């Protein structure tokens, strides 16, 4: 199980409404607990297990009353000509490197590959998100200091 699978599992559990999910596989054990009254946010425990454990995965969860399906959104015709830059990780989105510094980019800013667009904080690490394309920022889709999920749209860029 790689990091992307774990992130998707955390996202699924958060949306499902389950308060706790345990997943045990032959070499890894994951426990995800989501918000209660005394606990805010999510807690995830990942533990490497000795290779002698059973090889069948077991998943225990509270019963769900409805099946969750991915939500498909259709982009506006106006937005379809733009390229969407998405979050590569889960974390907190920041538009400035520090509170006293200027924003990395604004609407109308021209960008080139390698330009820093924002910072996403994950587990006290600040990850600079760089542009892979050149163009002009048309829309900033996330507010400063907001939580973002994996693959969440952050910017719309006009590549022309």
Provide the structure class: mainly beta
Helical content (DSSP H or I, runs of 4+): under 10%
Uncertain stretches: 51-75
Termini gap: 39 Å
Largest sheet: 4 strands, antiparallel
- Give helix and strand order, one letter per element, not per position: HEEEEEEEEEEEE
What overall geometry do the principal axes of the alpha carbons give? elongated
What is the name of the CATH topology of the largest domain? Answer: OB fold (Dihydrolipoamide Acetyltransferase, E2P)
Mind telling me the C-alpha Rg?
19 Å
Which second-level CATH architecture of the largest domain applies?
Beta Barrel
What fraction of residues sit in β-strands?
35-45%
Q: Could you characterize the architecture of this molecule?
A:
With 160 residues, this protein is mostly beta strands. The chain folds into 2 domains: 3-60, no CATH class; 79-158, OB fold (Dihydrolipoamide Acetyltransferase, E2P) (Beta Barrel). The chain has one helix spanning 3-16; strands at 20-24, 28-34, 42-48, 58-60, 83-86, 91-94, 110-111, 116-122, 125-130, 135-140, 146-148, 153-158. A 4-stranded antiparallel sheet has the order 3-2-1-4, covered by helices on one side. It has a 4-stranded antiparallel sheet with strand order 5-12-10-7, with no helix packed on it. A 4-stranded antiparallel sheet has the order 9-8-6-11, with no helix packed on it. The longest helix is centred in the first third of the chain and has 14 residues, at 3-16. It is elongated and about 50 Å long. It starts with a helix and ends with a strand.
